[in-house]
Specification:
The chain has 488 residues and is an alpha+beta fold. Among the domains are: 255 residues, Catalase core domain (Catalase HpII,  Chain A, domain 1); 66 residues, Up-down Bundle (Hemocyanin, N-terminal domain). The protein is built from twelve helices and ten strands. A hairpin with a 2-residue loop joins strand 3 and strand 4. The protein is globular, with a radius of gyration of 25 Å. The mean pLDDT is 96. Bound molecules: CIS-heme D hydroxychlorin gamma-spirolactone. Its cofactor is heme.
């Protein structure tokens, strides 16, 4: 009668169930008896099947795989999983759209989440990035407002281009990412045909305690491909799970998608003088200044067995570092260090790290105890405080943070540079004529329903400053004049 062999139906307390097709009733017509504990348990558990969806990045698809080091980068970082060519580390990835709800269509114009969890020998390292190297804003304090504009209008409960373009036009630091988003990269053909980026600048520390600034680029071996708007719109109606299905099928068929991981490395001192603030997440570093260095290869070779257990309960955090990798002062990253684990405590629970998908293969050893849904032995009878005289777990010298200097006055201030135009313009000028056409179409199509001309004109000025042709073409598409002061 063991329930391990899966032959016998049981209640959640393990007792065998006698009848799972008919409620227990008084006579054949009922009423139903409250004594039917199997029925009560079944209905009650069903009512609790949903956990809150992620407030952003709700719709996603995940896969397991491995990461293999292909190039020795140990002179830049002591991170254990990168310390030997050929070393393989198991990993899990979750791809997602940002703004839509859990059941929303895959083929919408939106950045794509690219969240990677490396199960290293010294704890989980999470790289929670997007398929774009930059972001719309550069200070976490603006994130809830920004996301409100991407979600639904409080009254109509509709997506509303008014609030989107109002916010963007009043937050010109978004221009670079807005250009990225409305170009081909905003509508990937599949999840396999896009690159991934760590987005922020991170700190790498080597064995000697030397420090480097680093940016991560995952380059797709499948190539980068986009969908046309009309095809994407059609797919959104016919198969809203198109990307999810494509990823699952590719892996199921043994057609394993792979990415090469590269880094850009900036010497510590360069950050003081580089032409762009290297901690401003709305900017990229030129590849001429900091060429890409190969690190390894990520291969996705196993589908999840259970979507809820592995994908829905996956909990990534930009604060999950391992020795050799640390935070940078990027203000967005700093806010994210708090936000993610806080989201998981609310969404999944205080003990979310104990779930199989989140559990480090290296094990955990600390003095945290108790809490809802503690699923392990809770430390058994071992000592639960420190310092102690009972051989409890000890700190590791090599895990100490690399000390760094901080200077300046505490204040709420902006980044130094208000140049939001050069890099956005460079991106525009890099695009082929065809892609420029598609970009202008996408921007014009998205801006057309905006009711206030004031918002449209304010945004056109930004496009114009990035590149006069860009501004003029959007203005023409909207049937508006380029504001006079921009006609240099
Ligand atoms: Fe975020 C989820 C990526 C800024 C707050 N974010 C989330 C996911 C990705 C990103 C890929 C989904 C993870 C998964 O698959 O489970 N987010 C980014 C990037 C950002 C960024 C690349 C900027 C460069 N995010 C950002 C900021 C905040 C958040 C500034 C808040 C201060 N993000 C969240 C969150 C989410 C999240 C609310 C929703 C649910 C979750 O974390 O697990 O905490």
């Amino acid at each position: 009668m063991s329930n391990k062999n899966n032959k016998h139906l049981t209640t959640s307390s393990g007792a065998p169930v006698g009848d799972n097709q008919h409620s227990l009733t008084a006579g054949s017509r009922g009423p139903t008896l409250i004594q039917d504990v199997n029925l009560l348990e079944k209905l009650a558990h069903f009512n609790r099947e949903r956990i809150p969806e992620r407030v952003v990045h709700a719709k996603g698809a995940g896969a397991h795989g491995y990461f293999e080091v292909t190039n020795d980068v140990s002179k830049y970082t002591k991170a254990n999983f990168l310390n030997e060519v050929g070393k393989k580390t198991p990993m899990f990835i979750r791809f997602s759209t940002v703004a839509g709800e859990l059941g929303s269509a895959d083929t919408v114009r939106d950045p794509r989440g690219f969240a990677v969890k490396f199960y290293t020998e010294v704890g989980n390292y999470d790289l929670v990035g997007n398929n774009t190297p930059i972001f719309f804003i550069r200070d976490a304090i603006k994130f809830p407002d920004f996301i409100h504009t991407q979600k639904r209008d409080p009254r109509t409960h509709l997506k509303d281009p008014n609030m989107v373009w109002d916010f963007w036009s009043l937050s010109p630091e978004s221009l670079h990412q807005v250009t990225y988003l409305h170009g081909d990269r905003g509508l990937p053909a599949t999840l396999r045909h896009m690159n991934g980026y760590g987005s922020h600048t991170f700190k790498w520390v080597n064995e000697k305690g030397e420090v480097f600034w680093v940016k991560y680029h995952f380059i797709s071996e499948q190539g980068v491909k986009a969908l046309d708007d009309p095809v994407a719109n059609k797919l959104a109606g016919e198969n809203p799970d198109y990307h999810t299905e494509d990823l699952f099928n590719a892996i199921e068929e043994g057609n394993y998608p792979a990415w090469r991981l590269y880094v850009q490395i900036m010497p510590y001192e360069d950050a003081k003088t580089y032409k762009w603030d290297p901690f401003d997440v709305t900017k990229v570093w030129s590849k001429d200044d900091y060429p890409r260095i190969e690190v390894g290869r990520m291969v996705l070779n196993r589908n999840p067995e259970n979507y809820f257990a592995e994908v829905e309960q996956a909990a990534f955090s930009p604060g999950h570092f391992v020795p050799g990798i640390e935070a940078s002062p990027d203000k967005m990253l700093q806010g994210r260090l708090f936000a993610y684990s806080d989201a998981h405590r609310y969404r999944v629970g205080a003990n979310h790290e104990q779930l199989p998908i989140n559990r480090p293969i290296s094990g955990t050893n600390n003095y945290q105890r108790d809490g809802y849904m503690r699923a392990d032995d809770n430390g058994g009878g071992s000592v639960n405080y420190e310092p102690n005289s009972y051989d409890g777990p000890k700190e590791s010298e090599e895990a100490r943070i690399n000390p760094f200097e901080v200077t300046g006055q505490a204040d709420s201030v902006n980044y130094d540079s208000e140049d939001h135009y050069t890099q956005a313009g460079d991106l525009y000028r890099l695009m082929s004529d065809d892609e420029k056409d598609r970009l202008i179409n996408a921007v014009v199509g998205h801006m057309k329903p905006v009711k206030k001309d004031e918002i449209k004109l304010r945004q056109i000025k930004h496009f114009y400053k990035a590149d006069p042709e860009y501004g003029r073409r959007v203005a023409e598409g909207l049937g508006l004049e380029v504001p006079e002061e921009q006609e240099v």
